[in-house]
């Protein structure tokens, strides 16, 4: 068998130099993969399960934003946890580094190799093992695509408690490993609550079976929680028991225009109080974001005239008439009080989808501006627009737009700065400023995208030495040779 | 200073011999506390913060069910995490064992000493530091009583996302450390989701500050999760950032009578689907439980005649008219379909409270039967009554009653067997049978009360060697001298 030679660094040429500088790392003292290792993998997984063709490897080696580029020469596609266990036991013995990869939709470089780590993809682990039609507890393999699960369980009256832009390609295992948040965390809470059981394979190949058929299970340290959000540095999540909520039968959406941010906070407060049990999303976008959607994808402002801020309120429920009247009463009430000057609402499927487009297509339209500096932060709610406001004078004359939007109901802001192309000067105006400001406000430098490679150097801003040290001890304990997703987080 | 001598084992006399046998342990090789240690503690905490009087120590040394009895000769009452840190650093250096204790309302002996461990009580750490009136994020000391926090935040429109029988005396830190569940988990989810930040002190005195002002925070391994439910074996929880939900303005309750368990499942399914966003509690109790309430505390059956099972459905929401009509429609619908033969509902405060009494006073009335064997399990929902049914023929002629009740919406069953007094013969019919059956069904041997001392020997039924081993490694890593809550869980 002749292996295609794959030079380290060969594909770095396509990558923005800025990004390379931002993720400067030195290769760890891992073994380099040899032909005989590939033979072992082929014997274990079959040739279908071992990818060595450089062209085919291209998609495993870079993230979908084209920000990060590794040079792995082999991707492995196990079909079950027993195969994951065999792979890891072998890699641990041989001191070969491994990067677990799901749908490869991450934005912080957590799921792509940095050097020549072996890619362990969950692509072929996509079985839905069972759904309890009474309780909604689903046991599913890590590689199932989020939207596929949602479609599969719809006929049973359930839905997934997670909705995000990448749902058509992200893997559930990746969602769990990054603790994905998305549009409806305000309704369904975080994965730390809804994942009731989990199977993971540790670095040495040990299969940790923490699957569960029941929601309440207080039997010692809840170790499954360690894997939720740790981006594969402690183990590879292979299967999940997930508590699926009832599928809401009806939803209504309104987009409201606000003249200033105080009014936005009024909308938040009234929605939280008045629509409490129905509220399923509370999103905000500023004028700059909506203008970008209008400029770049041709979708118009649904209100008569531009406002400084727009709030999208979605409610869901089991009774269509109650849902529709609740939202209409809410909008009337909020307009009567002069909180918003204008609003538009819909309760039918098509209208709801059209209104959602104003929010959902922001990221896509922003990408068309040229180069985008993307940030995902949590900030105290009162400070929701402050990062954007502080950044505007700093980037004046350098940036095309500063767009502030995101899951306001959860204090999660997506701050995007666009320009025709990348520039060091612009970059220097943004970082480390935005991270420092976030921490000063008492926020989080990563709300829902994780730390990965991108934010690693800023983590000490967020977490003190004691915290990082304890994290490092846990990492060292569970993966002494540090073969699992090296260079990421810590 | 003359210390009152406190002989190890002195107070064991009051304890049921059966229980002593069930928790056989050998004292670890910890140091014994000396007068000079007490002097150090008094210098640190003041005499108010150090309890050495044997009579006063009585309540620290035994649990409120009177099942467990330790012989600690000192209880420490720090006021803040700095003092907790000093205490633990000193105890770790001196190799003195410590048992953290909250409101001492636990049922598995997790919060009382087994031998002469020092009691570290959170009783004087009861400050509410802040509540964000916009988001409902509250930062609160571990020693605050759950109900006190609920009362403090009511005027701001918030409530605590946890409700349980011991709310008037349990401490929030204890709730977190045991991952308490209670009546409304079905609505608010588990503490793993609602606790957004946490400060804990490790065995060596290190203060781990993971407090947070924001809900979404994905910055590496979410270590705070380790402390939720680990019953103080990894660290002492000292402060919590808790996401409080909006206080529901209205609630309605119905009690429905079912002739058989199939009908109970029908009620569950219809309630989950039809009342989805309103559903705040779904409790079940069998005829035996209600009969016990009638016999022992004189509260009558609210329905015309006895049924095999009763289901209590509570819904909550922001619009009183919607809530009342939703519940009434649900009850009519369920009666029209012949699922239940009789039901009674109320939407006014007094009526709701009266209906709740049928469920809430079960534990109290059961206690009046004499001796009670209490079990807290999770079982797959379809098997909810199976443990009780299997037990009845085994305990016939020995037990007074077998009562099955609990948080059915979460598959959490409270199985209670009563008798005039404790008997070995009866005990042998129940244990280990109930634990073995639970595990066979795919349930959990502890749904919401934890493992503590009581269930320690059954934990290997639930968790395999890999899981226990990984748990032990984490324990060893974080508390090398094992001074924190020894003899508990592992």
Layout of helices and strands:
2 copies of one chain form a homodimer.
Chain A: H1 17-22, H2 35-45, E1 50-51, H3 54-61, E2 75-76, H4 81-94, E3 98-101, E4 118-121, E5 128-131, E6 137-141, H5 146-154, H6 172-178, H7 185-188, H8 191-194, E7 195-201, E8 207-210, H9 224-227, E9 236-243, E10 250-258, H10 261-274, E11 279-286, H11 287-297, E12 309-317, H12 320-336, E13 342-346, H13 349-360, H14 362-367, E14 371-378, H15 386-395, E15 401-407, E16 412-419, H16 424-430, H17 433-440, H18 459-462, H19 465-478
Parallel strand pairs in A: 2-4, 3-4
Antiparallel strand pairs in A: 1-2, 5-6, 6-9, 7-8, 7-9, 10-12, 10-13, 11-12, 11-15, 14-16, 15-16
Protein name (chains A, B): D-2-hydroxyglutarate dehydrogenase, mitochondrial
GO cellular component, one term (chains A, B): peroxisome
Subcellular location (chains A, B): Peroxisome
